[in-house]
Queue: 3 jobs
Job 1
Amino acid sequence: MKAWSYLYRDYLKDEGQRNVLFVSLCQCASAISFTFIDTIMPFYIFKVSPYGQRETLFWVGAIMGVVGFFLMVTAPLWGVLTHRFNPKILYMRAQMANGLVFLLTGFTTNLHLLFVLKLLQGVFGGVSTVGLVLVSSSSTKEKLPLNIGFFQSCLTLGQLAGPPLGSFMAATLGYRTAFICGFLLITGAVLLCLFKVTDVPKLPRQVKKEERHLIDRKVIAGWLICVVAQIQLVFLPSILPKILEGFKFYSSHALRLAGIVIMVYTAAAAIGSFILTRLAKKMELIKLITLLVFLSTIFQILLVFPEGLFSFTIIRMGQTYFTAAVIPLVFSIFAGQKRGAVIGIINSSRFGGSAVGPVIATSTYALFGQDTLFLLISLLTLVVLINFRYAFRDD
């Protein structure tokens, strides 16, 4: 009863908040299908690959990384399109295109074709930028950080539900069934958006002078801090099969454990995003972001030390708890500007991190081992944090 009262009071009383709720739920369903597929993809690639272990590892990094690269490139373009076309229609069409890509992936065993399909997923997947435009256009200035945090929490909850569902279904019913279910989830998200989300106006056209000054040092610093935060969040799944082997877990047992491990640390991320974004009411944004990034880096370093899967997972939960709130907090700095390209640029950081994360993880793991990988990500994060503080030194 209290949960319903909270929903009615904060998200169902007015049209704008209803939009925030249902767009966030659409993104949640979309995230379920994404993680549904991506959790099992490394196992699927190892299953169908005709190559040896080391070469297959590089294929895993390339296939899982290419989607993030193209998401990074196209996310700003989706933001620009919201100045010209109906944001709701853009959102639905791109989501449906992604669903079709998932369906086709389930009928593909050729690694080169898998690479092309993941590339296409990247082209259409940047539509979450439009979801952010829908949320920000439906929000008051006072509620913008909380609403973006809610959007991010729903996205993270989708990432929480996807891994155990995908790994369980792949282990029990086969990979193809999992890919088909991913397509059905996307279709459900599109239908929810069609019937429950109301139209918002196209963003105002930018004059040429404004377009020339879209990217400044603060935008770059915000983009980079989100990239390293996303790297911390996504680097692990691509090497998780080998991590589990190091803890003496193999085959289908490892596949089920992978889903559980990803589920619990993604749960920590969802809780962290929901709770820590609310500290923006009490603490200056820049200081809060700095504190969270520093704490997440400490936990990243601690990943070097565990000798068992349980302690490794606990530390990983702490890391993702502090990291997940960084991205919506940085988004809230820029989302109120109503500039689709800037929103797209900042949103592309998530995809840039998703592109670079698996490549860094698989290549560094293959060449130097996991301890070097954990320390490399920590060092990269600290360097970017220093740059972030310098860019916002006057705020």
Job 2
Amino acid sequence: MADAKSPKLTPTRQNKHCTQANCKRPYRAKGLCNMHYSKWRDGELPKGRYKICTKEGCRKPRALGSICAEHAAGTAAS
């Protein structure tokens, strides 16, 4: 009966590590260390913070449908 009311034990923040492959740095947020968290915020990781433009090589956030504001302006001028 005591097991039914016992709290779930999760690793403390000090015991967590980054979830990126081969990274053993301590956890910061969203399962990432400081370095990977910064890269995630900047959109440099494969699954970035924002959905990005679908034009090849463009990493800007989407603005209109699946393209960024710059590419949307380029298609409107055509």
Job 3
Amino acid sequence: MTSGYPRMVALGYGKLVRADRIFAVVPLEPGERGDGRRTYVHVEGVAEPLVASRSERAILTDVDAALTDAAGIPRAGRRGVREGEVPP
């Protein structure tokens, strides 16, 4: 049973934001990285982007799962689809 409300997404450094408030993730260039800094996360209602220690791909995966869960949509299986194969 879903709550209908999106879950919180961990950004690292003890920061959590609601999945439905994230509107952009921007990976840091290699020269900007350091001390675990990986991604800028733009959040609705926050003027400056938050610095996350997680990759943009990991954050977007969690956002997708949280929003899918909140919408009550069953998640697809973990099995990948091979070339020429029809998904279930």
